[in-house]
Design a protein that fits this description.
about 35% helix, six-stranded mixed sheet, alpha/beta, about 20% strand, about 300 residues
Length: about 300
């Protein structure tokens, strides 16, 4: 009697995309910094908000607002033709989104251009679009699926060239920071890896105390731990400040029954009225907090 044999599968589709991402993420000397946030003040306003923005949208915009004030968070390390650091004029978020592809769950990436300049309603509409629109109708998903069928040496070269030659193309196609969370599943990531300069992640939110562990994983070639720790403190302040104010002042429209069909302009790199922040140099200068007008102490 013969034993049943297994089968070999080709890592195509989202599995191939993740394999390529992990290949280049392993080249980044990353380290995590964590901080416990208190977000209890946001729970009820978020639930009462008519569009009920997800926690990912709240964290995304809070981090983007902090990044708009601190240029190092918009920088990327490039290796070719010489080692250098590129500074992008605004934040781009690459959000990990789980979708079903050919009967299996897979990870796709939704790109959000300049979330600091969008409302929570706009961000939530774009997120619903990324989560519910047919895969073949989302340009970035469609490109990732097609690209996974290209021979691996060609794929790896194109990944490498995008990450290391043009800073603008790198940030446009991959984002300036990543966002990934298993908090809704009751789990927490220990040290997620990414080829980007920073990745923000948060765990489950305590339903009673409203506390949550938030981590910012950073590329040590671009940033240092003390700088990242101070930025985590500011993200918490923005969540309980500007983000809370927006939830309270802007009730938002009622959520649509069908996936939105008009959010494509939000996903383009050239947003109407896009206002890049003032680009700072590399000299050691006190960072001015635009929310308070005070210079940050060293």
């Amino acid at each position: 009697m013969h034993e049943p044999k297994g089968r070999y599968l080709s890592p195509t589709g989202p599995r191939g995309f993740i394999n390529d991402l992990v290949h280049f993420a392993h080249k980044v000397p990353s380290a995590p910094v964590s901080r416990t946030f208190n977000v209890s003040a946001l729970r009820d306003p978020r639930i009462r908000h008519l569009s009920r923005p997800s926690w990912s949208c709240l964290f995304m915009k809070a981090y983007a607002l902090v990044g708009s004030e601190h240029a190092p968070l918009r920088r990327s390390y490039l290796e070719f033709p010489w080692p250098r650091i590129y500074e992008h004029p605004y934040m781009n978020c690459a959000l990990a989104i789980e979708r079903t592809y050919q009967g299996e769950e897979g990870v796709f990436v939704g790109l959000f251009r300049a979330p600091e300049q969008q409302s929570l309603v706009q961000l939530q509409a774009a997120l619903r679009w990324y989560k519910h629109e047919p895969l073949e109708k989302v340009g970035f998903y469609r490109q990732a699926l097609r690209f996974s069928k290209v021979p691996r040496p060609v794929r790896r070269f194109l990944w490498w060239s995008t990450l290391n030659i043009s800073g603008f193309k790198r940030c446009k196609r991959f984002g300036t920071f990543g966002l990934s969370s298993y908090g809704a599943l009751g789990a927490e990531q220990i040290h997620p890896i990414s080829p980007l300069t920073t990745t923000l992640t948060f765990g489950p939110i305590d339903p009673v105390a409203g506390r949550v562990m938030v981590k910012l994983i950073y590329d040590h070639r671009v940033l240092d731990g003390a700088f990242v720790a101070r930025r985590l403190r500011e993200i918490e302040e923005v969540l309980n400040g500007a983000i809370l104010d927006e939830l309270l002042k802007d009730p938002g429209p009622a959520p649509a029954q069908e996936p939105p069909r008009n959010v494509e302009p939000l996903l383009k790199p050239h947003l109407p009225g896009l206002a890049p922040p003032q680009v700072s140099g590399f000299a050691d200068q006190p960072a001015v907090n635009q929310r308070s007008g005070a210079a940050e102490p060293a």
